[in-house]
Write a structure and sequence with these properties.
By secondary structure, this protein is an alpha/beta fold. The chain folds into two domains: 6-245, TIM Barrel (Alpha-Beta Barrel); 254-347, Sulfite Reductase Hemoprotein, domain 1 (2-Layer Sandwich), CATH 3.30.413. The chain has twelve helices and 15 strands. The protein has helices at residues 32-45, 61-69, 82-91, 106-119, 138-158, 173-186, 201-217, 232-245, 268-281, 283-286, 302-305, 337-347, and strands at residues 6-8, 11-13, 20-24, 49-53, 74-78, 95-98, 123-128, 164-169, 192-193, 223-224, 254-257, 292-296, 311-316, 319-324, 327-333. The strands form three sheets. Strands 8-7-6-5-4-3-10-9 form an eight-stranded parallel β-sheet. Strands 11-12-13-14-15 form a five-stranded mixed β-sheet. Helix 6 (173-186) packs parallel to helix 7. The chain starts with 5 loop residues before the first strand and ends with a helix. The relative contact order is 0.10. It binds iron/sulfur cluster. Residues 258-261, 263-264, 296-298, 300-302, 305 line the site of iron/sulfur cluster (SF4).
Length: 348
């Protein structure tokens, strides 16, 4: 099926275009200080479309505030209130997210589609499993979600509205995978991938990587939003790593490290975490560096096991070996070795 490309502001989604990372504001819109901090962090992490929940007319002021702060396209997330959707369109949002489970009257949707068409604003038809009251197994839930998406899309198409993006999210990995596979097979529109209500952070990370990883590997998805019970910048960073891990873009140098064994005489976990922070602090100069950096627990096997890396350190008590593509460059003091590694990384 020939896939459609839509534009969200100047960003192209769908077809062969790169997968776009979406983020969402979590701070209360009234909490000015933390709001500014969050927006800055989201931008720094690489958020490409920013979604913001609009609950009342007064919230629309946030659009102007955001326009002054960032040049990222804005998606207004509207539930229940179709008039609010019309106001958001008038305000000039770049994309509208509607939930077919709570804005569904044809007369309301007709008004929204008419105005969205005039404004050339795309609509994301976003169904979440939370809106279904009946308990269902994964297959039934997937079918129920896509059915809602299909009928909404059909109605929009009947109004000759085609600037559509779709999404179907559940807390269940299986239901989300199945639903998105069906959407991809049956519809030409870009798909926004994500899970919902992923639970505790560790479990949420696993579910997100698994679900989005499988779908992206199958060629499904034009935008991703990782939902975690954590900060929004972590969601964006996770989305970036999912894409990078699947070769769908390069953002930062990749740190690899051995799992350690009894040969390791240093606290490698601590060193890896420290080096990761050093990389992120220097991300402006390291952004888009498609490099692998290894931190290995011993000199016996370290350089050899990390021979595919571009640069690395293998630790031996108070000394460390600095190596490049498996070949040892020199032995250095363990203390300060991470700074030396960063120095070489920046200059590579
Ligand atoms: S690199 Fe050394 S410390 Fe790390 S797992 Fe291999 S043998 Fe063990």
């Amino acid at each position: 099926m020939r896939k459609k490309v839509i534009k969200v502001s100047n960003l192209k989604l769908g077809g062969k275009n790169s997968i776009v990372i979406k983020g969402m504001i979590k701070t209360s819109l009234e909490d000015n200080k933390n709001f500014l901090k969050e927006v800055k962090l989201l931008k720094q992490e690489g958020c490409q479309i920013l979604r913001v929940a609009i609950e009342k007319e007064g919230d629309l002021k946030v659009i102007d505030r955001l326009r002054k702060l960032i040049d990222i396209p804005l998606e207004a997330d509207i539930h229940f209130n179709y008039r609010l959707a019309l106001s958001a369109l008038e305000k000039g949002v770049d994309c509208l997210r509607l939930n077919p489970l709570n804005i569904y009257k044809k007369s309301h949707l007709t008004k929204i589609a008419k105005l969205a068409k005039e404004k050339s604003t795309p609509i994301r038809v976003g169904v979440n499993s939370g809106g279904f009251k009946k308990r269902m197994d994964s297959r039934e839930l997937a079918q129920a979600m896509v059915k809602k998406v299909f009928s909404y899309v059909e109605f929009l198409e009947s109004l000759n509205f085609k600037r559509i993006m779709v999404s179907a999210k559940a807390e269940s990995c299986l239901a989300t995978i199945l639903a998105n596979q069906i959407l991809y097979k049956k519809l030409p529109y870009p798909i926004h991938l994500g899970l919902t209500a992923t639970g505790p952070l560790y479990e949420g990370l696993i579910k997100s990587c698994l679900t989005l990883g499988i779908l992206i590997y199958q060629g499904i998805g034009s935008a991703i939003r990782v939902s975690l019970n954590s900060s929004s910048w972590e969601e964006v960073r996770t989305a970036g790593w999912i894409l990078q891990s699947l070769g769908k873009g390069y953002f930062y140098p990749e740190i690899i490290s051995c799992p350690t064994c009894s040969r390791c005489k240093v606290d490698l976990k601590k060193k890896v975490e420290k080096f990761k922070e050093m990389v992120y602090k220097n991300k402006d100069s390291l952004y888009n560096k498609n490099m692998k950096v290894a931190l290995m627990g011993c000199v016996v096997n370290g350089p050899g096991e990390a021979s595919t890396s571009d640069l690395g350190l293998a630790f031996a008590g108070r000394r460390a070996l600095l190596f490049k593509r498996g070949k040892i460059i020199k032995a250095i003091e363990e203390r300060g070795s991470l700074d030396t590694l960063l120095y070489f990384l920046k200059r590579s």
